[in-house]
Amino acid sequence: MDLRQLRYFIAVARERNFTRAAEKLHIAQPPLRRQIQLLEEELGVTLISRASRPLRLTDAGKLFLEQALQILGRVEQMKVATQRVGHQQRRVFSIGFVASTLYGGVPALVRELRKHAPELDIQLVEMMSVQQIEALKTGRIDVGFGRIRRNDGAVERTVLREERLVLAMAPGSRLADSDAPVAIAELADEDLIVYPKGQHPSFADQVLALLEDHGVRPGNVHEVSEMQIALGLAAAATGICVVPYTASLHRKDLHYRVIADEHATSPIILSHRRDDDSPYIVLIKQLVQELYATSPPWLGPAGGNLHTR
């Protein structure tokens, strides 16, 4: 087995079609089919079920795909790292993040990481929580900060803390007559603004599931692409919006109330490749704990401990 065969298999697995995969790889279809066949013969298992249209991966094929993605990702990392050492350049360390984490501890953490690891060229890449999983497995990022719990055997998740959720609304709105925690039942029939649009699973799914768990039906539900748009529409009295606590610290033209339910939280999750023995992963977890110990304002009404899963 060689790296070329891994690339061929990944292309077929992604396209679910030999013709499209061959076009992507700029090769003819017969040699592509032959290389996949040789790969299966060497492994002694069937990786792709040809009986279905589109093609379907077998259970063995799904496992092999995960491993192949990791291998090629690490090969690319090795190549880049070697070139950088050869050219006396710093190592690139890429951090994926969802936008809402920039309101909390991620900027402070990155500043501390720069101090403790000046040899790193730290790059920040905005991407959705679900996208971070694939990016980790392919080596595009080294760690990710997201909010969606998603199990994957190749990725280890650490819940850094559970952040309280707050209700954001325009001053003068029906629910803006108090600063006290607001019961979820009071959100019934209110027009609700959720984000992000078209991504699943997402923070919007978390919010809607929270209401559904309490038997609460909102009025109209408006889906928008990002949190800042949601807050802007809330300020324009288009509806109410549920956001993480840290978002309430940066926009003062809205009225905020903490949601009065212990389960009304959104996790901040650190993800990295399983069995990654990089000392920088350990350093990041240590720096997070040190930041939390200082009780910064953005920590909000609920901090949290590290829970690795």
Topology record:
Elements: H1 3-15, H2 18-25, H3 29-43, E1 48-49, E2 56-57, H4 59-86, E3 91-97, H5 106-116, E4 120-126, H6 129-137, E5 143-146, E6 155-169, E7 192-194, H7 203-213, E8 221-223, H8 227-235, E9 240-244, E10 255-258, E11 265-273, H9 279-293, E12 307-308
Helix pairs in contact: 1-2, 1-4, 5-9
Strand content: 15-25%
Q: Could you describe the largest sheet, including whether it forms a barrel?
A: 10 strands, mixed
Structural class: alpha/beta
Helix content: 25-40%
Q: Extract low-pLDDT stretches.
A: 303-309
What is the residue-mean pLDDT, rounded to a whole number? 88
Beginning-to-end CA distance, first to last residue: 33 Å
How many distinct beta strands? 12
What's the Cα radius of gyration? 23 Å
Identify the overall geometry.
Answer: globular
Query: What's the total helix number?
Result: 9
Helix and strand succession? HHHEEHEHEHEEEHEHEEEHE
Your description of this structure?
This protein is an alpha/beta fold and 309 residues long. Helices cover 39% and strands 20% of the residues. It has helices at 3-15, 18-25, 29-43, 59-86, 106-116, 129-137, 203-213, 227-235, 279-293, and strands at 48-49, 56-57, 91-97, 120-126, 143-146, 155-169, 192-194, 221-223, 240-244, 255-258, 265-273, 307-308. Strands 3, 4, 5, 6, 7, 8, 9, 10, 11 and 12 form a ten-stranded mixed sheet that branches. The longest helix is centred in the N-terminal third of the chain and has 28 residues, at 59-86. 32% of the residues are buried.
